[in-house]
């Protein structure tokens, strides 16, 4: 899946490209936004002008979400973490996912809108990695969620228990969770799981407000981000080069003095090992 998650990167690339053109003196079209009928506002924004939550600054960089724990759509990250806790609880009780009757996920509006696909057929990778029920069920059954769990023919994709369980997981929107998700000073991505067992037991709800990698859990995430960085460098560079890159990343003054092109050049190889 070499072209997954390209949207944000593509948008940034286009923005930088436009900035470079402006710096070189390219004028552009003064009325591209406001031209009647054919301007951007009329065509795509129902004649409304752009409105911004805050002045331009560093908000986006300060609130970057690092995807650390699971290869999953971000609105599901906290649900998967909650499912991992529940898997441990079941194990302590001598039980397993087979004894789950149904599950309720208390969540935010964006999650319901984007990845709530309880009864939709799982025909391919993209269906599975954008279905919160599939991801939660996989964690509960196998105590893991890896990229290979989305592929056709994988253990998770062919598991009758995963397929049965995901159809018994329903999402309900919590208005407070939605409010917290949109609040500029919080921007949490909360999910809460309540599990009912076939024997009538109701497990205590497990709530996770923000995923590892969120601003609220930044310090907790740093060691895991470093591990992920090393894990991805390892197959491509010698151990000594990996060590050098990590040392550079931890040397803020040196890194800030280095040109962007110089830094990117450190990742170039004469021959790619595909």
Description:
The relative contact order is 0.11. Strands 2-1-3-4 form a four-stranded mixed sheet. About 45% of the residues lie in helices and about 10% in strands. The chain has 13 helices and four strands. It is α+β, with helices and mostly antiparallel strands.
**Low-confidence regions:** none
Distance between the termini: 14 Å
**For the CA atoms, what is the radius of gyration?**
23 Å
Going across the biggest sheet, name each strand in turn: 2-1-3-4
The string of secondary-structure elements, in order, is HHHHEHHHHEHEEHHHH
Mean pLDDT: 94
Share of β-strand residues: 5-15%
Helical proportion? 40-55%
**Overall 3D geometry?**
globular
Report the count of strand segments. Answer: 4
Structural class label: alpha+beta
Counting DSSP H or I runs of 4 or more residues, the number of helices is: 13
Give a brief rundown of this model:
With 274 residues, this protein is an alpha+beta fold.
Task: Describe this protein with a few key phrases.
globular, 4 strands, 4-stranded mixed β-sheet, alpha+beta, 8% strand, 274 residues
List the helices and strands and how they pair.
Elements: H1 7-23, H2 40-44, H3 59-62, H4 77-92, E1 100-107, H5 109-115, H6 125-128, H7 132-142, H8 160-166, E2 169-173, H9 175-182, E3 191-197, E4 206-208, H10 218-233, H11 239-249, H12 252-257, H13 260-265
Parallel strand pairs: 1-2
Antiparallel strand pairs: 1-3, 3-4
Helix pairs in contact: 4-7, 7-8
